[in-house]
Amino acid sequence: MTARTSLRRAGLVAFLPLLIIGRCRNGDDPTTPPAAGLYHTFSEIATELHGLASAHPDLARVESIGRSVEGRDLWAIKITDNVSVNESEPVVVFLGGHHAREWIAVDVPFLLAKYLIENYNRDTQITQRLNAAEIWIVPMVNPDGHQYSVTTNRLWRKNRRNNGDGTFGVDLNRNYSYQWGGSGSSGDTFSEIYRGPSPFSEPETQAARDFLLAKRPQALISYHNFSQLVLYPWGYTHTPVPDQPRLHTLAVAMADAIRAVHGVAYTPQQSADLYLASGDTTDWLYFEIGVPAYTIELRPRTTFPGFELPENEIAPTFEENLPAALYLIDQAIAAPTMAMN
Amino acid sequence: MPLKLGSIMIALCLMACASPEPPPGGKSASGLRKVMITEADAVDRLRALGLEVIVQQPDYVVVRQDSSHLQALREAGITTLPAQEADLVQRLVRVHFSDREQKQQIIDMGIDFWEQEGDSLLARAFDIHLSRLQAAGIGYRILANDASKREVKP
User: Fold this and answer.
1) Domain range holding A10?
2) Nearest to A111, CA basis, from A330, A294, A317
3) A341 occurs within a structural domain
């Protein structure tokens, strides 16, 4: 063996661990990227968001709001005119993919981002909205879980926290701090509604918390599926929020806007009417800053097909949810201080 | 020398990949363990030792073990293995409830709620959940032994 070969071999051995770390962190095999059909995977969402921002640098900017347990970025896209300037405009946030198996809940906010960007200067109303408001979209809050759902277990719900007892995962939508540990969550690590060892124990919810507190949105929608519901706080108790009539009126208007597109009915109701659930995103945001915060449970209505919504329903699900999202943006623009008095 | 260093680094990396950092509160002495069933009364014996049965399959069970069980298991000559994620099979079940409070009681047991249909709900549940339902006198029907296999049609 020559000295050069020996050096090359030693260098390769020293470099190998870095390759292994990279592979394990991402859980992706670069030679055979996981496919989710017409649904977007983590890497596809990242590529698409960066592509949109590159093609529209004055209108869109992508940034990471934090990293997941396994080190994936939680990508957010800011969409507004003068995107590099911090203007004093109402902020509306759309979140997707807290739960891994709910693939449509990633694609709907992603398609919303794409639609807004591609229709600026084409559609007068979209242009006016983006001139007047700052839209932030985080389509995949749980990238590790989503990836695991694509590669290994289609029905995976939680993130990929190693709980240290042979189980994995914390339900991110039970890990927010407001009323953490109450009804509708579980302390059993194996449960699909495991709330985690402490409030905001997970990097994904920490990132969402820090992002939302920094942006202080005037309104928020967190997309989930399934059941076709428009839900508003409280989720942890049957007691109505102080401005329940306003939140209900907005929910009814969004449900009406959804139904007007393809005739599909979404039911507007207080979240607790479905069942009590504590530690979720919308209860926490409403408690923290008192703004309208909605969970929209997308198609389908029933277990069959449940989480596995056929690909040919991606487009109509987005189409019917678009006017509801635009309606909430309009409300934020019309009443830039939507916080409860 | 570089080869040896490289091997150590690879081993460290593989360990890190196989076991992402558990939370600060994680207890190494407790956790889910798999026990292969070789005798008819194996499950009863495990329950008699105070172990909770999370999953019960024809050829194995997954139990929740803590440090207090170690001695008893050793004395009973029962060997446990680390449970793998694939061992954690869930059933697809229809659970009947009488009112809103009982529906919430079911959800608070930790089951994976999917859908409400009148006075019943569809959910994924581990066997420990079914034991809890039975103990509470709540009726249920198993629709599929492995919810992930999509054996059930609407």
Assistant:
1) 3-334
2) A317
3) no
For residue A249, pLDDT beyond 70: yes
* Strand ranges across the sheet with B81-82: B52-56, B60-65, B31-36, B81-82
Measure B101 CA to nearest chain A CA, in Å. Answer: 9
Q: Is A298 part of any domain?
A: yes
Report the number of distinct structural domains present in chain A: 1
Residue A319 lies in a domain: yes
The answer to whether residue A239 neighbours chain B at the CB level (below 8 Å) is no
Residue A23 one-letter amino acid: R
What tokens does B14 get?
A: 């593989």
pLDDT at residue A222, rounded to an integer: 98
Phi, psi angles (nearest 5°) of residue A29:
-100, 115
For residue B40, what pLDDT band results from cuts at 50, 70 and 90?
Answer: confident
pLDDT of residue B48: 94
| CATH number (domain holding residue A29) | 3.40.630.10
| Per-residue pLDDT, B4 | 54
Q: Which of A48, A89, A102, A297 is catalytic?
A: A297
Q: Residue A339 falls within a domain, yes or no?
A: no
Residue A138 and residue A209 in contact, taking contact as beta carbons nearer than 8 Å: no
Confidence class for position B50, pLDDT limits 50, 70, 90:
very high
Burial of residue B153 (CB within 10 Å: 0-12, 13-18, 19+) is exposed
**pLDDT digit string, tens, across residues A57-92:** 999 999 999 999 999 999 999 999 999 999 999 999
Q: In chain B, which residue's Cα lies nearest the Cα of A152?
A: B86
Could you say which residues from 18 to 57 on chain A have a Cβ atom under 8 Å away from some Cβ of chain B?
20-21, 23-25
Residues 6+ apart with CB under 8 A from B40: none
Is the pLDDT reported for residue A192 higher than 80? yes
| Residues across chain A | 341
Q: Could you tell me what percent of chain B has a pLDDT over 70?
A: 78
In a 3-state reduction of DSSP, which class is residue A78?
Answer: strand
CB spacing of A227 vs B115 below 8 angstroms? yes
Closest CA to B53 of B37, B38, B67: B37
Would residue A297 show up in a list of annotated catalytic residues for this protein? yes
- The interface predicted TM-score of the complex, written ipTM, equals 0.88
